[in-house]
Design brief:
13 helices; five-stranded parallel sheet; 290 residues; Rossmann fold; alpha/beta
């Protein structure tokens, strides 16, 4: 019988052996790694410490308690057995998502949710965030797109943003050539994209096309995204919640909510006036029961 991913992961086995000796903070770390084993390969100590609200020294002590010298030692000893990107195939996620006890699953899920939402609020304090808000507020037009299962987020975000400002367009690519992305000469246009691993093949192609046409490109993605920074400086990364089967990304969702909030504040009276007119239209067409 083929082994599950967890059974072949020596890092997960080391955590299991040390579980009874872990402190409360170390249990938070273990839950994160068990849900996201790729983190040992792709994230720095400072990145993980920031997400989990712990010190880098606490993380180093955790590695040593598991029997490793440090993060580099843990990484080198788990690289051959780690989950890896191939296990982001939907069949692998189904295979590995229902093997934990309910209590373990709930606790790990809660900690991952906290980490994702906290990361979104932390990103809101960055200079990058301020630049993103400025572009979404001041552009002549904003186009929004998402690929595969992320399309629903693009749709919902674009509908809400259109309550605050005009010329917001959802890009679906149904024509195969994204003909809507043809800004007029001298026009300032922003494209907002959102996607997670395994990324849509059109993502980098579309982002490059938009940049060639003089558009600003903002990308909401998970931390595995390794192609976006070569195209645009406006890349917002959020923790990937690999613990959940067919997860709806909480970090990105929170980030989009915060963007709506900050854009509305930046627009001020313009947004207020537009919302009043939309409310009048809702009453005119009798869209709601109350």
């Amino acid at each position: 019988m083929e082994k599950t991913v967890q059974e072949t992961d020596i890092f997960a086995e080391a955590i299991a052996r040390a579980e009874d000796r872990l402190t409360q903070k170390e249990k938070r770390i273990s839950a994160y790694f068990l849900a996201r084993p790729e983190a040992i390969l792709i994230e720095t100590n400072s990145d993980i410490a920031r997400k989990l609200d712990i010190s880098p020294m606490t993380l180093t002590r955790f590695y040593r308690k598991l029997g490793f010298d440090d993060s580099a030692d843990a990484r080198s000893k788990t690289i051959r057995n780690t989950y890896g990107p191939d296990n982001y195939r939907v069949d692998k996620r189904f295979e590995t998502s229902f093997t934990k006890r309910h209590s373990e699953d709930s606790q790990a899920g809660l900690q991952l949710s906290h980490a994702s939402i906290e990361a979104a609020f932390s990103l809101r304090d960055s200079d990058l965030w301020g630049e993103v808000v400025e572009r979404v507020t001041r552009s002549d037009a904003v186009h929004v797109t998402g690929f595969q299962t992320m399309y629903y987020l693009a749709d919902g975000f674009s509908r809400r943003l259109s309550y605050l400002r005009d010329r917001v367009h959802l890009v679906d690519g149904i024509d195969g050539v994204y003909a809507g992305l043809l800004p007029a000469s001298g026009e300032q246009v922003t494209l907002i994209m959102m996607d997670v691993f395994r990324y849509g093949a059109h993502g980098p192609i579309l982002a490059n096309l938009a940049r060639e046409r003089g558009m600003d490109v903002i990308i909401f993605a998970d931390e595995f995204c390794d192609w976006a920074n070569e195209i645009t400086p406006y890349v917002l990364r959020y923790p990937a919640e690999t613990h959940f089967f067919l997860a709806m990304p909480q970090g990105i969702s929170t980030g989009l909510n915060l963007l709506l909030q900050d854009v509305s504040g930046k627009l001020g009276a313009r947004a207020k006036q537009r919302l009043r007119k939309l409310s009048e239209a809702q009453d005119h067409f009798g869209l709601f029961l109350d």
